[in-house]
Structures are given as C-alpha cells and as structure tokens.
Design a protein that fits this description.
The chain has one domain: Rossmann fold (3-Layer(aba) Sandwich), CATH 3.40.50.150. The N and C termini lie far apart (42 Å). The longest helix has 19 residues. It has a 7-stranded mixed sheet with strand order 3-2-1-4-5-7-6. It contains 7 helices and 7 strands; from the N terminus they run H-H-E-E-H-E-E-H-E-H-H-E-H-E.
Length: 209
C-alpha cells in the first residue's frame, strides 16, 4: 500500500495534472464547461483544470468533489483565482453529502473512467440534480470499432493499475441511459489519431427526465 501511495504522490498525480492540461484536452474542456449554469457539481475535480472555463455570468457556485488530496491541493490553488465561488470536498462521488435535487448542472470530465462504482455514482448524480438538470460530459471510453474494443478490454486490467483505476472500455452514454438520463446530444469521435484505445471520446449532454 505504501508503494502505491508513493507512486501516486511522486508520479501519477503530477502526470495526471500535466496530461489533463494538454492543448487537445483543453480545447475539449473549452467546448463543454462554459455550458454549465447555476449550482454546479464537478465530481472528480482533480487538480481543478476546469475552473478557468466556468462562465461567471451563468454559474452561481461550483462544488468540486475528489478523493485525491494530492490533486485537490492543486485545485485549491486554482480556486483562489477562479471567477466563480468554489467549494471543494475531499471524498468520493459514490456518496455525495448533498441534498436531493440541489444541483443544476453536473460536469463530468475525464472522471467517469476511474470512479470505482460508476453505476452508484451516476445514481448519485441523478439524485442531486434538479428535475430537468443537465449532465455535461467530456470523457474517453469504449470505441465503436470491434478491433479497438477488444484491445481496450484486454488492456484495461493492467491499465487500471498504472493509471489510477482508469477504465479504457466504459461506455458512458450507455451507462447514463441505464441511470435514467435522457440523451440530448453526444458527439462520438476520435479526439486524437493515436492511441485509439485512449482517443475515442464522448462530448455532449444528457438531462434528468
């Protein structure tokens, strides 16, 4: 356990912050995050890379949730410069300390791949969203090509150990549908030419029925 913790502190967390700030990823964030409005829940806030993209004209408050204290230390620094009020909670997304129907928007960016119990977390997002509330989605996941799917399934067990629990093969739109969300518009595409196992993306929104 100590070895895993050291790996996370010294390599995985800093590397995660760097990767999450790469230009192609930033451009995708710029497309989806400014759509958030009202009281916003951001599960898997990580190092706070989304904070700069929230529109202060539309957002009342951002509630960031993440169990990784190393990344949250960076998020707290970025929150000081944010143009919207930010509250940060150090805990997992599967048991949110929020009232039913208390949130207007959920922003899920590069988080759905690594939440241990994704179905439970999605049920929590559904619970805390107001009727008609939106979940904005920017995630990598299960590709449409069968050959790539097979490779994703094969690589995921080892990849999870190296990448903080990240699954290469989660079909987030299907999981959201199973959780009761209605799809509004979700683009499905390769955000990068390579590697295909990581490049397939879902970008768009679903709504609480």
């Amino acid at each position: 356990m100590a070895r895993t913790s050291l790996y996370d502190r010294m390599l995985l967390s800093p590397l995660t912050d760097i990767v999450c700030g790469l230009p192609p990823i930033t451009r995708l964030r710029e497309r989806i995050v400014p759509q958030a409005e009202g009281v916003v829940l951001e599960p898997g806030m990580g190092s706070g890379r989304n904070l700069v993209h929230y529109d202060p004209e539309r957002v009342k408050q951002v509630i960031g949730v993440d169990p990784n204290e190393k990344l949250l230390a960076l998020a707290r620094k970025r929150a000081r410069d944010a143009k919207v009020p930010v509250e940060i909670l150090a805990q997992s997304a599967e048991a949110l300390p929020l009232e039913n129907e208390s949130v207007d928007t959920v922003v899920l960016t590069y988080t759905g791949c690594s939440i241990p119990d994704i179905r439970l977390a999605l049920a929590e997002f559904f619970r805390v969203l107001k009727p008609g509330g939106r979940l904005l989605l920017c995630e990598h996941g299960r590709a449409e090509e069968p050959r790539v799917q097979r490779l994703q399934d094969w690589l995921t067990p080892a990849w999870r150990q190296l990448a903080g629990g990240c699954h290469l093969n989660r079909d987030l739109p299907a999981l959201l549908k199973d959780a009761g969300f209605a799809e509004e518009s979700i683009e499905r595409f390769y955000a990068l030419p390579r590697p295909k196992v990581l490049a397939w993306h879902f970008l768009g929104s679903v709504r609480k029925r």
